[in-house]
Amino acid sequence: MIKSQLFYSITCSALGLFMVFASTQNLLGEAPVAAPSTTPATQAATQAVGYLTPQDFLKSVTTDLVAVMTVEQAMTLCAFDPDSAKDKATAKLLAVNAIAQARLEKAVREKWGREGETTFAHTIGDNMPADAAKAMWEIKDDHASATFQVDGLTPMLLVKQNGLWKLDMAGYREILGENTDKFLQASTDTLRRLTHEMGKPEAFADVEEFSRHARAEIDNLGNEGDNKPIAP
Question: Does residue 56 form part of some domain?
């Protein structure tokens, strides 16, 4: 699997960007740890701080949830050392990336429906709720990984931090290596550009054409000069 697929799936698939807005109640029937209060528009997002089982995380973190999060709220989905400037910087880049992806996939759904959303998600290696429901888990001590039955979907890596399951940022960093931050920024630029391009009238004939275009952009990530950032 190419490295450029990984962070397109981190939070909302892995990240499926699980497209149906699921309840933020965890599987044990207890509410997730609360985050600081926010505006009504992001009230639901404040609940997604950490979950008591890895299955809770996969079920509860949705595209619609992440799409309305602030960067600070999305950072709480990641396991990182708050006292490390390097960790904090990577977590922020990851949070911005996750929000950009969630907004893109939500826009695809609004334009081409849920079937189109599935086509797009699978093309870029992301999972959907039906994929997440059939996920196969490997859990050992404080680490968990979920793999999916559809070929090409990116696994999700989770780790337990202070009793709660979160995205294993160190695990993804190990895969991507020393260029993790650079890749995350390039990935976010690409996601934003794709969202901008998709919004142009008659830019793409159908979701299949847009999905092929998006996958080509993803495959080009990491190549010098391939990413042309636009304003968020």
Answer: yes
- 230 is a domain residue: no
State pLDDT tens for residues 156-185: 999 999 999 999 999 988 888 888 999 999
Q: Number of structural domains, the chain?
A: 1
| Domain assignment of residue 166, yes or no | yes
Domain with 173, as residue range(s), is 3-219
DSSP readout, the chain? --GGGGGGSSSS-----B-S---SS-TTS-PPPPPPP--GGGTTGGGTT-BSSHHHHHHH-BHHHHHT--HHHHHTTEE--TT-HHHHHHHHHHHHHHHHHHHHHHHHHHHHHHHHHHHHHHHTT---HHHHHT-EEEEETTEEEEE-SSTTPPPEEEEEETTEEEEEHHHHHHHHGGGHHHHHHHHHHHHHHHHHHHTSTTS-SSHHHHHHHHHHHHHTTTSTT-------
- Determine, yes or no, domain membership for 97: yes
pTM of the model: 0.77
